[in-house]
Amino acid sequence: MLPKLAFWLCLFTSFLALVSDRVSGDADFESVYEFLREDHSGKGGDSNKKYFHESTFHPHYDGRFATKTLPDAERRINLTALVKSYLATMKDLGAETWLMHGTLIGWWWNRKILPWDSDIDVQMTFDSMAFLHNYYQLYVFHWTHPDIPGGRDYMLEINEQFDKDNENNRYNAIDGRWIDMQTGIFIDITAVKPNDEMRAKGQLGALKCKDNHKYNESDIFPLRDSTFEGVDVKIPYEYAWLLEEEYTKRALTKDEFEGHKFNPTSLEWEPIKGKPAQYPNSRKGRPGNLRGNGF
User: Fold this and answer.
1) Pairing relation of β-strands 120-125 and 186-194?
2) What's this model's pTM, rounded to 2 decimal places?
């Protein structure tokens, strides 16, 4: 009996040593995940100061989790599940977040994702970002969706430079991501924080992001309640003014774009026969960037 017990104790000790070598308490993402899938991120050509690395085949995919883009129909289903899971999770965790940029344009028109878009843009308070970094960094959330058999795992990853404000900002404008671990699509999260430089000059409510967007507190707060893709969402208080400032007034009125025309009866962007969307799955342009594409 004792020899058998000694054998199993020895085997168990060896197993623990193996596991401790593979995964330690301060292991980074690469050391844990590298043996599971080939990496198609573009980090080989990026600065070593950059935290997030987009895929080699499309700027709106994480190459650690994908090898190619999704077909258009699948992309829309998965983006919808992505944003629903994010909004519900952030609400459960008490993180203060809201729609912004191209995603806010989609909300403006029909409370949905723009059909040609391939990512989601949101903002978050700096305090909420710090909370998530401290307690949920690299945390994986499993969600069930009626349109996705078996559900889906989503990983919350916070840029380790999110609280740094220096010359490396241009490499790390994105402070966090909510990533679909099956398809590689993601939500870009940027933190909004006090703009100390402008406040020292007398602009007491000045705010900023590391992507060079600057605001006043009254532009964003108090946040408004609304819905997006059928779930509860927050939007900035001065949403129309913010969109006009970023994309010009035409973004709120031009009803034909990217091979689609907005139908005011059905409240849907409908494809125009013979005019396919130009950039749904390409590195050539940023879907939703209406200023740079004709507005």
Assistant:
1) parallel
2) 0.83
Q: Which residues contact 37 (CB under 8 A, 6 or more apart)?
A: 64, 65
Q: Provide the token pair at 138.
A: 């690299």
pLDDT, tens digit (0-9, with 9 covering 90-100), for 62-99: 999 999 999 998 999 999 999 999 999 999 999 999 99
Q: CA-based Rg of the chain, rounded to a whole angstrom?
A: 22
Cβ proximity of 79 and 117 under 8 Å: yes
Q: Look-up: residue for tokens 């997006």?
A: 228
Token code pair at residue 103: 């995603």
DSSP conformation class of 7: H
Query: Are 101 and 246 within 8 A, CB to CB?
Result: yes
Environment class of 169 (CB within 10 Å of its CB; exposed 0-12, middle 13-18, buried 19+): middle
Rounded-to-5 percentages of helix, strand, coil across the chain:
35, 25, 40
pLDDT at 37: 61
Six-digit token string for 124: 């978050």
Q: By the 8 A CB rule, do 115 and 269 touch?
A: yes
At 152, which amino acid appears?
Answer: R
